[in-house]
Amino acid sequence: MIAKMKKLTFLVYHKEYETFLTSLRDLGLVHVTTRAQGTAENAELQEAIRLTGRYSAAGKYLQQLMVPAQPHEGNVQKGVEALETIERLQAELQQLSQRIQAVEKEITVMEPWGDFAPESVDRLRDAGYHIDFYQCSEKQFSEEWIDLYHATLINREGSKLFFVTVTPVGEEVELEVEAVKLPAGSLSALKNRRQEMLRQQEALQEQLKQLAATALPDLQAAQHDVQTRIEFSKVVLSSDAVADNKLMLLEGWAPVKAIDEIQQFLSAQEAYYEVSDPTPEDDVPICLDNKGFFRLFEPIMRLYMLPKYNELDLTPFFAPFFMLFFGLCLGDSGYGLFMVLAVAVYRMVAKKIEPSMKSILTLVQILGLSTMVCGLLTGTCFGFNLYDIHIPFFQRLKDAVYLDNQQMFNLSLILGGVQIIFGMILKAVNQTIQFGFKYAVATVGWLIILVSTALAFAAPSVLPMGGTVHLVFLAIGALMAYLYNSPDKNVFVNFGLGLWDTYNMATGLLGDILSYVRLFALGLSGGILASVFNSLAVGMSPDNIIAGPIVMVLIFLIGHSINIFMNVLGAMVHPMRLTFVEFFKNAGYEGGGKEYKPFKN
Question: Where does the record place a coiled coil (predicted)?
């Protein structure tokens, strides 16, 4: 369900405004209505946003170094210093990397000519001889150059030749080949320079690794501090100055259950305030307030989108279906037992578990229990069939709950039909709450048609298909669906819209129900793959009293680990798809609500 909200309006004297906001932030209960207008023009705010991006980038860079972090309480000032150090080291690394690339290019140019001292070339020039360096293909080289320019071959790489010419200073050498300009240093000097720079690079990387081990909590603390200032600035920019800029006007929202505490806080503040109910035009933030079992499924709802304030929260209504669908998709009692036990062991071993993580772990255990129960429908346990074991307990259980493939296929379709009909009922309720019952009449008409037809098909002895009672239901439903489709339009428009709804219902409803076949298909495929791994474990183990069991256990563990990972992923994705597409569509869910986020540290 969605928590009831109240609208809060504040008037504060401008000189006391920042003090009031600081106290309001410390209270941490009011969702302040913020505006994007003015944010882009505020240079200080934009700089703070860029700064938090720098902190985020620095933290990700340190995490990529894969160095175990030493947990400790973050310090904001140390985080500021760490950011400066990291960015300085990164800049130095980048410059060093560019210099290393330049030296490596010079080494590549120099290697064909060998290691010689450039001073030798200078001494020859002082003696009156000029040396030029060239490279060309073997076909381009002419033997005449040896006599004309004293061309001397230095090196050969494949079909490429490297040679020099020795001519008196002042004599021009005209060769239509590529001249080479050599670096200033010798090959050994260049390699020594590269080695020195690589040592410097390693030293810088070592400094960054040391920071990765110690600075992450400090960076996070500094980033949180900047984010707090950003939120504060946004709130300031969202205020309106009234009465010649003497008063500041601010709007916010809070759950009804927090109003008494807020009013007690405001009674000690120098501020005027009003508490009012939201109007239909207000964009009210959404605070989901489900209890117990249903609260566990709120993260799944947030993966899609939150409802609007005047909509039904569908979390309590899809939660039982999702739990059942997950169990059918995974469909192996052994896998469900593994999930339950793995979470239980983690709870015992973990030193500290966050409250949000505790709810997720509980959800995993509930889904595991659902898998254990649904796995009994087919008797699958780690790819083995429990009902092949001739023990009275399993045989009685088989007589009570066992379903074959055809029955599992039918069960999937029945569950799809039930959830879609249930979604249409919620759609009628939602339309009644939002707009009034007259806007839900057409939906109720379609419900009468579908439910009566399904009942006539399933139990013809109770309601004969095509009988008088059934035809009466069909007539009533058709009149409601065709003549009251849109209460604000005339009868002809309503009839046309009714025909269009008939087409959509005939095509869309069939496709929606067939989508639920995946519940049967995923469970069947997972069971087959598990049995294949069991066969491989037995068939590929060698006939050796020691090696045989070891190989069999390894294949069993690796195979079922892969199968659990793949099937758990599928068992999460496909029920979500059925929930977000088939169920939400037939329930008329719109969504688009923004989350209630109180202004706090």
Answer: 79-106, 187-214
Could you read off the pLDDT of 227-282 as tens digits, one per residue?
777 677 666 665 665 555 667 777 888 888 888 888 888 777 767 778 888 887 77
Contact 409, 517 (CB under 8 A): yes
| Residue 466 token pair | 């095509």
Assess if residue 2 is contained within a domain.
yes
From CA 220, how far away is CA 227, in angstroms rounded?
Answer: 10
Rg, the chain, Cα only: 38
| Phi, psi torsion values for 432, nearest 5 degrees | -65, -45
Q: Alpha carbon of 371 to those of 123, 312, 333, 405, 413: distances in Å?
A: 87, 29, 6, 17, 19
Cα–Cα distance between 525 and 270 in angstroms, integer? 67
pLDDT in tens, 336-362: 999 999 999 988 888 777 777 888 999
Q: What angle do CA 38, 40, 43 make, to 5 degrees?
A: 100
Sign of CA dihedral 225, 226, 228, 232: positive
Of the candidates 264, 265, 312, 252, the one whose C-alpha atom is nearest the C-alpha of residue 288 is 312
User: Range of 1's domain?
Assistant: 1-33+250-285
Could you give the 3-state DSSP secondary structure of residue 478?
Answer: helix
d(CA 258, CA 222): 30
Phi, psi of 588 (to 5 degrees): 70, 30
Confirm whether 268 is domain-assigned. yes
**Six-digit token string for 579:** 């929930």
Residue 13 and residue 247 in contact, taking contact as beta carbons nearer than 8 Å: yes
Residue 273 in tokens: 């305030």
Tokens 């004309």 -> residue: 148
Among the candidates 285, 306, 337, a domain finishes at 285
Task: Count other Cβ atoms within 10 Å, centred on residue 180.
Answer: 16
